[in-house]
Amino acid sequence: MFWLGLLLAICFVPGYTGASIPTQWAVLSIVLPLGLWRVSPIGPGHKLFLGFIAYAAASAIWSVNPYTWVFGMWLVFIWALAFHWGTLLADLRPLWKGLAVGMYVSVGVAIAQAFDFAPVEAVETQIPGLFFNSSLFGVTLSLVIVALVAHKLWWYTPPLALGLILSGSRGGLLIATVGLCARFIHPLFAVAVCLAGAIGFLSVLDPTDSQRLQI
Questions:
Q1: CA 165 from centroid of its chain's CA atoms
Q2: Residues near 131 by beta carbon (within 8 Å), at least 6 away in sequence
Q3: Scanning 43, 90, 117, 181, which has the fewest C-beta atoms within 10 Å of its C-beta?
Q4: Distance between CA 68 and CA 170 in Å, rounded?
Q5: pLDDT tens-place string over residues 147-191
Q6: d(CA 165, CA 134)
Q7: pTM exceeds 0.85, yes or no
């Protein structure tokens, strides 16, 4: 699992190994079906996922764009296979370690981008590492940080925290804050922080942004 995490973190190099579709989807489409040879007990989570897959498949009836539906179903099956694989593993720490080490590469790229060096394609004026978009970079970093802390793998987190700061992703910072509050304080306190962040975000929107959100 370490090598899978490492590969997922570095396989997408904007402009070289991928463009509009992240390379991670292709990697997972190849690797995850290998877990189907093992059978796991069917629990409530499996039944909920099967119900969701059935609903997603039925949405072809009212889908406006069949090509979008096919792409969506591809992602749904990747999620389902990832869920199945996760139920087979007793310890996910090797995966998080691999993701952390792989993310170090993105942090290194982000440092170069902060000094106006552009080794890979990226959204203009953003610092996204290998993720092209700084919001996606920050959110991914925050999730990996929370998972590492939850598994007491503290020593992997400092470079990732630097990357989160460089990304400037407010969503990533909020996710990290809420996740760590839920882990060390109380889940209800984390919910309160999330609500406060949402209210603060909405309060700084101009009226036209608010109208677009309502639509």
A1: 17
A2: 12, 14, 106, 137, 140
A3: 90
A4: 29
A5: 999 888 989 999 999 999 999 888 888 888 888 887 777 666 656
A6: 11
A7: no
